[in-house]
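WARN retry 2 of 3 for item q-0093 after timeout on previous attempt; input resubmitted unchanged.
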Amino acid sequence: MVTTTKKLITETWVTATWNEYLENIKHPNCEKAKGYYHNGKYRIEMTPVSNEHSQDHSIINHAIYLYATLKGIPLTGKDNWGERNLRWQNFIFALFK
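OK item q-0093 returned
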């Protein structure tokens, strides 16, 4: 029996049907991946999970908290939060202008 392995395309939007997306998201390498499907396109993101990534993430959070404290900006912490609202993106970008 011949088994072919299909190369998994990640980190970009790919035009495909819903069934093709479901087939690809079941790929063994996608066990910890995040997948999105919208308007006939899908995207699979391989999440960085490692000790080094968590250290980088922590340093960034601490720097933001220090900046907000020094500037008197009230702040709440939301770790791994994914708000896709443009209003929030504009607010965050305005803080660092």
